[in-house]
Automatic annotation (TrEMBL):
Transmembrane domains' residue ranges: 31-50, 62-84, 105-129, 156-177, 184-207, 244-263, 284-308, 328-351, 383-399, 405-424, 436-456, 462-480
InterPro entries: AA/rel_permease1
Protein name as annotated: Amino acid permease
Entry-linked Pfam families: AA_permease_2 (PF13520)
A single MF term (Gene Ontology): amino acid transmembrane transporter activity
Topology in membrane: Multi-pass membrane protein
UniProt KW keywords: Membrane, Transmembrane, Transmembrane helix, Transport
Signal peptide: none
Species this protein is from: Streptomyces hawaiiensis
GO cellular component entries: membrane
Cell location: Membrane
Highest taxon of the lineage: Bacteria
């Protein structure tokens, strides 16, 4: 039993599977496309919202240092992703990497985890996008009909038609092809980055030096609901950490980390990249460097424009401009946030469909979903199925409480990929690696430690929900995946001749 649960799929076989005509994705992406995808999915509501939250509750002007700390934690994971994506340029990201290094059951677990992470992430972002659009409509004097707007505070039978419509439109774009998706993403990312740059440049002229005093706030009570107000931490360590000084910076880092979630989605497009050995590391690391730089600059500017204690939690950037007598920028920032969320939603949906497609091609899910469109060469079946499911989910469900599952799922994937780099280095030292993670095993071990620390900072309720989803995944694997995987069928074919007394292989 244990030998079948941890059977690995050879890297060479994974690459050969990508060459089967009925299951081959079209290679059309460049390093620039990948970088744009990364920036497109990373820069979302995090930078427009979390800056005010952590500055007010945790780090004050030192929020910039919190972004640096979170960026370093992500960089550790990004180095591991870059090696895997260039060595195993196959759709599926952490799922495929785990199959090659840890075995089938760990691969299934991480694939099941990613399906949930990307599905909830897409739905949550779609609902957030709908909220921004409705806010802009209200400013223009337009109001959504009752029951068709945001689900927050609505009656039980309401349906967020804007959120559902966005998911369905993006599903159609992804079915048509990756190149079209890349072009649309490039346009939207250009708008989004322009908004961020306007905030930085315009805000720089409104900075007051007194607002940086104190740069690191003194001790204050831990606010209810903060990342350190966690029963799990108190249960494991027997103490409730203070939220001040240097510790406040690390607390803030555990919160703003979630503004970086998304660079790992770039790895899911490895199979559709023209030169993955060269371009995947550039896309993953390049997008992370760009976003970290922008985040740090924005946090420095916004805490310089308005004292951290006066920053708003819901819209700190927009409200900081209002407080300095420039209300026009508030609408401009809201518009940029709404436009920018479309790419976040699309790229998360892209990542989920590629993981689902890879699991189907390996037989762990029905092979019906692994056939590509004869014209567009995209995995249209899982894209349509998941798009419809997520559209319904986004329309009917207020997902604020479930959103934390996106975070724990991402961190869990980081841990698995880092461990996989160490194992594959030892089990397959002969593999050609266009990019090599430096200082192995030190960097992967640091990545595991950083991810586990951030996971510990999540509420206990999130761990319970995550455990329930994982238990359901184990059930599906043992009832279907273990006996239907291509590796299982291949082993059965090899063992049958000897069992039958010398039959023909």
């Amino acid at each position: 039993m244990s030998s079948t649960l941890f059977r690995t799929k050879r890297v060479e076989q994974s690459i050969r599977d990508t060459e089967e005509p009925e299951h081959a994705l079209k290679k059309s992406l460049s390093a620039l496309d990948l970088t744009v995808f990364g920036v497109g999915v990373i820069i979302g509501t995090g930078i427009f919202v979390l800056t005010g939250t952590v500055a007010k509750d945790n780090a004050g002007p030192a929020t910039a240092l919190a972004f640096v700390a979170a960026g370093v934690a992500c960089a550790l994971a990004a180095l591991c992703y870059a090696e895997f994506a260039s060595t195993v340029p196959v759709a599926g990201s952490a799922y495929t990497f785990s199959y090659a290094s840890l075995g089938e059951l760990p691969a299934w677990i991480i694939g099941w985890d990613l399906v949930l992470e990307f599905a909830l992430g897409t739905a949550v972002v779609a609902v957030g996008w709908s909220g921004y659009i409705q806010s802009l409509m209200d400013n223009a004097g337009w109001t959504m009909p009752a029951g068709l707007g945001s689900r927050e505070g609505a009656d039980a039978f309401g349906f967020d038609i804007l959120a559902a419509a966005l998911v369905l439109v993006l599903t159609g774009i992804l079915v048509v092809g990756m190149k079209l998706s890349a072009r649309i993403t490039s346009i939207v990312v250009a708008i989004k980055v322009t908004v961020v740059l306007v905030v930085i440049i315009a805000g720089a002229f409104l900075i007051k030096g007194d607002n940086y005093d104190p740069f690191i706030p003194k001790e204050k009570p831990v606010p209810a609901g903060s990342s350190l107000d966690s029963p799990l931490i108190q249960l494991m360590f027997g103490w409730a950490p203070s939220n001040f000084g240097v510790m406040g910076i690390f607390t803030a880092a555990s919160v703003v980390f979630f503004a970086f979630i998304g660079f790992d989605v770039v790895a899911t497009a490895a199979e559709e990249t023209k030169n993955p050995q060269r371009d995947m590391p550039r896309g993953i690391l390049g997008s992370l460097v760009i976003c970290t730089t922008l985040y740090v600059l924005v946090s420095i500017v916004v805490t310089g424009m308005q004292h951290y204690s006066e920053l708003s939690v819901d819209a700190p950037l927009a409200d900081a401009f209002k407080a300095t007598g420039h209300p026009w920028f508030a609408g401009f920032i809201s518009f940029g946030a709404a436009v920018g969320l479309t790419t976040v939603c699309m790229i998360l949906l892209l990542g989920q469909t590629r993981v689902f497609f890879a699991m189907s091609r390996d037989g762990l899910l029905p092979r019906f979903f692994s056939r590509v469109h004869p014209r567009f060469k995209t995995p249209h079946r899982p894209t349509i199925l998941l798009g419809v499911v997520i559209a319904v989910l986004a329309g009917f469900t207020p997902l604020t409480e479930l959103a934390a599952l996106v975070n724990i799922g991402t961190l869990f994937a980081f841990v698995v990929v880092a461990i996989g780099v160490i194992i594959l280095r030892k089990s397959r030292p002969d593999l050609p690696r266009a990019f090599r993670t430096p200082w192995v095993p030190v960097i992967p071990i640091l990545s595991v430690c950083a991810s586990l620390w951030l996971m510990i900072n999540l509420p206990a309720e999130t761990w319970v929900r995550f455990a329930i989803w994982m238990a359901a995944g184990f059930l599906v694997y043992f009832l279907y995946g273990r006996t239907h995987s291509r590796l299982a069928r291949g082993e059965a074919a090899e063992e049958q001749p000897s069992a039958g007394g010398g039959g023909t292989p």
